[in-house]
Amino acid sequence: MTFPDAAFISKSFPEISQVSLLDQGGQKIVFRGQHSTHGEVVLKFAEPDIRTEREIEAVTSFPFTFVPRILTSGKVIHNGNYFAYLIEQFVKGESLRKVLTARHKLTLTESVQLLTDLIETEQQVETQNIVHRDIKPENIIAGIDGHFWLLDFGIARHLDKVSLTKTAQKFGPATVGYAAPEQLKNRKQELDVRADLFSIGLVAFECLNGFNPFIDGARDVLEVLRRSETMQIPTLPISGDNNGDLVGFIGSLTAKPTSLRPKTAGKAMELLRGLLPSLTL
Amino acid sequence: MDLGLQFGYGMIKISETLVTKWGKGCVILSPRDLEPDQIPGFAKRIRSRGGETLLDPQFYEPRANWPRLTRHSYWPPVYSTQLLTDGVLVTRMLRELRTLNISAGCEYLIVPGFAAGTVDDNWIGTQELFIEHSSKIHDPERLLATICLSSDAVRSENQIHELLSTAESWNVSGFYLVAEHPKNEYLVEDPVWLTNLLILIAGLRLAGKRVIVGYGSHQLLCLATANASQLASGNWMNMRSFSIDRYILPEEEESKRKAVWYYCPQALSEYKPMYLDMAQRGGILDQLVPVESLNGGYADVLFSGAQPSSTGFGEPNTFLHYLYALAGQCQQARKETYEETLRFHQEFLDQVERKTELFRSHGVFGQDRDFAQYIDVSRAALAALNKEVGFMLSKNWLAN
C-alpha cells in the first residue's frame, strides 16, 4: 500500500498548496499545507478503519480548547486503495519531544502551563466519556502561543462504545513508558480519565526533571513495563515548589492504583489550582 | 478514629463495663465465641447501654470446623465449591446472616469474605460474588465488605494495588479489614507490612469508603494517619492480632494463659508487674501512670504505694485498662488535618522513644512487648505513607 503523496494532494485537494511532509508512520502519513480558506492546515491520510473513525468522532465531539480542530474529513481513493483523510487546524509550535530533546527540561512556569492545559483538555475529554490513552511528548505541541496542544486521538477509548481491543488481549493499546498500569494490563473495566492523568503526571515529571523514570536507563521494553507497573516515580525536589506540593501532586497523578489518583480531571484541576499560590513562578 | 471492641473469650463483662462507662461504643460480635442464642440478648444489653454492634461473620475459612461457629444458621452445612456457583446457596446463607444481624440490632451488615492467601482474580471473584448477592438483599449503603488478607498479601505492593484498583468500585459503603500479622507476631517488625496496610486504608478512604480495621493493637494507632475510621481491639493477644490459624487449628486455651501485663500508653509498651516493681525501686513508677484522659482507674492499684506485683492486679482490670486507654488514644490519634495528624504521630513516637529509654535505663523492660524495637517500624511506614499518599490525604481529609 502506498500512501498519497504531494502530487496526489495537489490534484485531489486543489485548495491546499505548499504541501510538505510532516510525519509518516506505518499506518498514516501527515502533510502540512496552505489552505485557501483556513490558512495553514494539517492533512492526514490513514487506512479507513474504525479507529480512524473514532478519532474523528472524538475530536469533533466537542470544541476542545487545546486540541486542533478538524476542518473536514472524508475518504479518497489512491492507487486503488481507500484512505480516510482529515484536514485539521495547524498549531504553530514544536512537538514537545523536540523541545525536550533540545532543551532537556521546561521551566517551572512552562511545566505548570503544560499541566493546566492538559488537565483542562482532560476536563473536556471527560465530558465526552473518552480516554485519550496516548498522552506523551510526541503527541503534544508546545505552541508559540504559550499553550500546550494535545494531538492524536488515534487510540482514544470511547467508554460508552464497544471496545476495539479484545478483552483477553494481555496488553492494551498504549505507549509503554507513558501509559498507566491498568491500560498496559488491558483492565478495561478500570479505564477512565485517571489513565490519562497518569500519563500527564509522567510527562510533567519529564518536563521538570529532564528524564522519564520508567524509560531512563531501562535495559529493554520489558523493564519499562515492569517499572511502569511497579516503580514509583522518584521524589525529586523542584526549585520554586516551596512546600513540595507540586511534587506531591505529580506523585498523586502517577500513583499505581487508580484510587490513589484524583478521581476526575476536575478534581485534578482543583488540586492544581490550590497549590499554585505555593509556587514561585 | 474510634475504638471498636473486638469480641472474644472473656469479653462479655469487659464490653458491658466499658460501654456502660462510655455510654457508647461499638462491639464487633464473634460467632466463634458466642452461641447462636446468646447473640440477641448480649447485643440488646450493649444497645441498652448506648452501644452498637457489628457482627463479624468469620467466614475467612469456609472449611473451618469450629463447633460454635458452624452451629450458626448462616454457616453452610457442608462446604463445597458449589457455594460459589449456586446463587441460591449464597443467597440462602446471606439471608440467614442478615436475619442474625437484625436480631443483633446491627446497623451495618458485614459481608462475608474469604481470607486471601493471594489477591488474585479468584479471590476477587468470590468477594464480588458475596457483595453482589448481599446488595440484592440489603441496602448497599449499609454494607461493609470483609477484606481478610494473609500477611503475604499485605506485604505485596502489587497485590495491594490490585486490591485498591478493584475494591473502589465494590457496591458497599465501607470495609471491615482484617490483616494477618507476619509470623504470628503480636507486634509487627516488618515496615513493609505496616506501610502497605497504611496505603491500603488510605486508598480505600480516598475512594470515599469507611474502613474498620479488626484485630488491632496499640501499634496500629498510626493508622489514623491514613484516616482509618475505626480500630478494633480486644482482651487477649489473639484479639489484637489476626491469625487465620485461629479458625483452623484446635482452640487455644486462652483462659489458661495467665501472664498479666500493664499497658503504659505513653510508652506504647506493656510491662509485667515485676518490672513495675523495678520502676518503683528506681523511683520512676509515677512515670508509668497514664494521663487522666487515658486512665479509667482500672490500674490505680498498681500506683497505690504497694509493691505493684503484690497488688493482685489481673484480669479483667488489665484488659479494661488496656482498652480504656486505647480508646482514649484512638480519639486523640486523628486531628483536624492530615498534616496535624502526621505531626502528632511523629512527635508521639519521639516521646515513646524517650519514655522507653528512660524506663530501660532503670531496668524496666517490656520484653517482647517493649515498643522501643518497633518505633522505627512505625516511623518508616509513616514516611512512606507521606511520600506516596501524603498529598492526596492532605487534600482529601474526610470526616469519619
- How many domains in all of chain A? 2
- The N- and C-terminal alpha carbons of chain A lie at a distance of 51 Å
CATH superfamily of the largest domain in chain B: Aldolase class I
For the record, give the distance between the C-alpha atoms at the N and C termini of chain B, rounded to a whole number. Answer: 7 Å
Q: What oligomeric state best describes the polypeptide chains here?
A: heterodimer
The CATH architecture of the largest domain in chain A can be given as Orthogonal Bundle
The name of the CATH architecture of the largest domain in chain B is Alpha-Beta Barrel
Helix content of chain A: 25-40%
Tell me the fraction of residues in β-strands of chain A, as a range: 15-25%
Examine the coordinates and then state which fold CATH places here, giving the name of the CATH topology of the largest domain in chain B.
TIM Barrel
The main sheet of chain A orders its strands as 1-2-3-5-4
Mean pLDDT across all residues of chain A, rounded?
91
Count of DSSP strands of chain B: 11
Please work out how many helical segments of chain B DSSP would assign: 13
Q: How many domains of chain B?
A: 2
Poorly predicted ranges of chain A (pLDDT <50, ≥5 residues)?
A: none
